[in-house]
Amino acid sequence: MRPTMRPLHALLLLIALLAVQSLAAPTFAQAQLYQAPGPNSPTTKEQVPLYVPQDDKLIGRVSIPDEKLAVLVQPEGREWREWRSHTLRLAIGGLAIGMTAVLTIFFLYRGTIRIHGGKAGRLVLRFNGLDRFAHWTTAVSFLTMALTGVILTFGRTLLIPLIGHQAFTPLAEYSKSIHNFVSVPFVVGLLMIVALWMRDNIPEKSDWQWVKTGGGLFSKAGGHHPEAGRFNAGQKGVFWGIVLGGIGMAVTGYLLMVPFAFTGIGGMQIMHVIHGLLAAVLIAVVIGHIYIGTIGMEGAFDAMGSGDVDEAWAIEHHRRWYEEQLRKGYVEGRHPAE
Fold first, then answer.
1. Longest C-alpha distance within the chain, in Å?
2. CA-based angle 267:268:269, to the nearest 5?
3. Cβ(127)–Cβ(304) under 8 Å?
4. Mapping DSSP to helix (H, G, I), strand (E, B) and coil, where does residue 214 land?
5. List of domains in the chain
6. Which of 12, 18, 19, 17 is closest to 4 using CA atoms?
7. How distant is the alpha carbon of residue 222 from its chain centre?
8. What is the pLDDT of residues 217-273, one digit of tens each?
9. Which of these, 284, 193, 277, 272, lies nearest to 240 by C-alpha position?
10. Which residues make beta-bridge pairs with 59?
11. Measured distance CA(126)–CA(308) in Å, rounded
């Protein structure tokens, strides 16, 4: 009998343990079921935390080379997503619409700034072929990047309700590819205008007079513009804004094109914020630049169109530069001694 008692005892002991467990389980479950909620207890399923950090540790440990995968939770990501979804759209839309509204009001007040006394009929070489190539390369590539960037930024809100997801998906993919590709000629054009025009865009004392009088843009009488060299203070401001802003956009843009090559997740988010804010400011600046170069001022477009401007326009807006061109013999129909 003794050899058969040990298995029997073991079986009885196992049954007893299972019985104790079965009796204890309902007790624990009932304790949780009838637990009185406290003031901080969740009331909806959305309030139930899916992740509770221990000792404020948000980064785990990994044995693989890609250390960024150790980041489990990054609270700054929520702030970046909020900025990407709302603040950036407000910045781009607000600055662009605000600049357009200001220019519309100014046009209604001032109209097109005409050449005082009419055109002289003689031409002055303003920009040669290389100058115009650098300008239009930079301008067309920037406008292309601005358009594709706006599609990527506002597409989900504005375009998907109009064209649907199936049409927007390839549009967004093509926009991203074009945006990245066109950045190359933009940088090339940017470097060219720096090499060609930086010397003539160095600020000088006479620029302060242009700033104080607003460049004569608000004078309805016409014909009164502060003396300026090849570029006035307003043009110098646009030049340095586009050059410095363009360099900043290029650096941050290329860092975004090679994610995590030089910085981590936080750095990528900072690069995106800087890139977006610079884009918002430059879009507003370029809108103003386009206005002045087209309907805002008579004869201004000729400088980048044909390269030649009317003599009366040159005297009125850039007298000091005109006198230099006259001495060099670049005024059509005039002898340098005249």
1. 138
2. 90
3. yes
4. helix
5. 75-196+236-328 (1.20.950.20)
6. 12
7. 37
8. 777 655 567 778 899 999 999 999 999 999 999 999 999 999 888 888 888 888 999
9. 193
10. 71
11. 5
